[in-house]
Amino acid sequence: MFKRKHTETGNDDDANGEAMGDLSTSSSAMDTHNIRIASRARILSRAQRLDPDSLHAIFSLVVSDDRPTLCSCVKHGQYGANKCTYNLGWIKLGHVCRLWRDVLLGMRPLWAENVCTLNNAAMAEFVRRAGGHPLVIDLNSSGSFTITLDIMLRARIIRGLSRSEQLEMLNEQPLPALEILELSSNTFTTVNAPNLREVTVNGNGRITLLAPNILRAKCISPATFSRSPSLRFLEFRRPSDHCADIPFMLTALTGLRELIIEIYDPDAERSIRTPWQDIDTALNVYSRNADNLNLRFRGVSLSLPDLRELRVSGRGVVRRTMCGLLAHLTATCAGTLRRTEVRCDSPHFTSSILALDAIRTSTHAAQVDALYVHFRDVMDGVSVVLSASRLERRHDPDCPFGTFRFFIPNHMDLHSLIRERIMPLLPLRRITHLFIECLPLRTPLLPAQVALTAALSKLTYVHTLHVGDNDRYPRSNESPEGLYALQGPPENPNLPSLERLYVSYSRGMFRDWWKRLALALAVRKRAGVPFASVCIAHQWGSNAQRREGATVSPLETFHEQAVDLQAPDIFVANAPVHAFNLDGASVWAKEKVAAVAKSLFTEVVETIEVEEVSWLEPVWPPNL
Questions:
Q1: Short-list 219, 217, 247, 214, CA closest to 230
Q2: Which pTM value belongs to this model?
Q3: Structural domain boundaries, residue 512
C-alpha cells in the first residue's frame, strides 16, 4: 500500500513539475513577446517623435535612389516584383505610423519632383498629390501612359520626350514653366519655352529652340538657336561634311563661356581612300585677310568675348574650317580663354598652319611654366599628348591649361617634325617643369622614343622633372645599347638644366620601377649632368608600417657590398627576384623605401627625400 501510494504521489509530483515547467515556458514566451512589443513601442515612440524637418530629410534621401521609372511589378509588367509604384521605398515609409504618412502626403514638392509614369492612374495620382507645384516628368519608363497637355504645361523638367504624339503636342506650344528639357526627334520640331534653362537634343531631326533665356545646351542632332544670346554652355556633334556653317551659327551666341564640338567622320574608310578636298596636306600659309570661316561674304563677324573653355575633338577637326575656327577663337579670346583641349587622330593635323597656330597662341597666352608630354607607339604612327599649364595652379579647380592630342604617321620624319615644327610652338624659355608618365628604359629606335628624345632636346630650361609611378603601356623589348631619352647625344645632352627629380612611388611592378629609377640617376651621373636631388612620394598612410623582423632586402645593403657604387642600375637589373618581396604587404613601408633609396643612390645623387604625398588630387596634368 505504501509503495503504491508512494508511486502515485510520485506521478502526481512529476505531473505537477511538468505543469510548472510548461507554465514557466509559457511565462517566458509571454515575457519575450511583451519585451518585443515594448521594444517595438519604444522604437515607434522614437519614430513618432521625429520632427517634420527630419522626416523630410529621410524621405528625400530615400527617394534620391528610388526613381519610379521602371515598372517591374507583376501587376504592371513582366519583370518580376522588384520595383513598382506601390513598392517604392519612400512610399512604403508612409506605413510606419500616422505621423509619417501625414508628413509624406503633405510633401507636395516630393510628389511633384518624382511623378510616376508607369501608367495613367499612377501619373494622375502623383499629379494630384503634387498640388500646384511644378512637375518633373521622366518618360524613360517601360510603362504605358499618355501625357496630357495640361501636365506638359505644368512641367518644370521633362526627360525622355520622344514619341511622335508628344512631340506634336510640344511643337510650337508655349511652355512657360519648362526649365529643363531632354528630347529625341527625327522630325522638324519647334520648342517655344521662354524660361528654358537647359536642353539636351538627340535624334536626326532639326530642332528650333525659341528659348531666349537658355543657359546650357547639349545637341547630338542639329539645333537652331533663335534669339538665344544668354546661352553659356554649348555641346554638339556634327558630321565632318556639315561643319562649314558652324562659325556662322556661333555668331549669334555671343555669350558663350564653354564650347564643346565633336566633328565625326560618317565614313572613315571612304575618307582614307579619298581624302577630303578642304584640308591642308601641306603647310599652306594664309594671309590675315583670308576668309577661312566663310563669314565675310555674309557680312558678319565672330566674337565670343566671354569664352573660357574650348574643347574640339574628332577626325574632322582637320577640316580647314575647323582649323580656322580653332585659330580664330584662340587668338580673339586669348584674354579670357582659360582651357583649350583638342583631340584629332587625322594624319594631316600637323600639316595645318591654322591648327599649329592654335597651339602656339593658347600656350603663350596662358603664361605657362609646366609641360606634360607623352608619346606612344600605335598602329602606323605615334600618338602625341602635349599639355601646358602653370605649376602653382595645378591643384586649382580653375587651373588654366592647353591640351593637344594628335597623331603623327610613321612615314613622316619624326625627329625633325618634333624639333623643328612642334616644340618651337611652345614658350620654351618659360618652361621649367616637365611632367612625364614614367621614367624611360633603354629601347630600340622605336618611333615614340625617337619623338620623346627630340622633344627633350628642346627643353633646355627645365630644372625639375615630375614623373608618375609606372608605364601605362609597358613594352617588353629593351636594348642595353639602345636610345635613352633622358641622356641624348653625349656631346649635347638632353635637359642640360635638369637638377631635381620628383617621382611617385610605384603601386605595382616594383622591380620595373626601381630599375627605371636607378637607370635615370646613374646614366645622368655618368653623362656629367647628374641630378642634385631626388624625392620619392607616395600616399602610404598610417597603416603602411614596416613589421618587426621583416626581411632585409639585398637592395638595402648595396652600399656594403663589393660592387661599383656608381652603377646601381646594373645591380638592380641583376638583383634576384626575392630582393623585391613585399613580405605580405601591398607596398613597401616608407622606412624601407628610404633605406633602399639611400643605399642605392647615395653616390649618384646629393639629396634623397622620401615624403608622404597629399591626398588632394591635382587638376593637371591630364589623364591618358
A1: 214
A2: 0.83
A3: 417-624
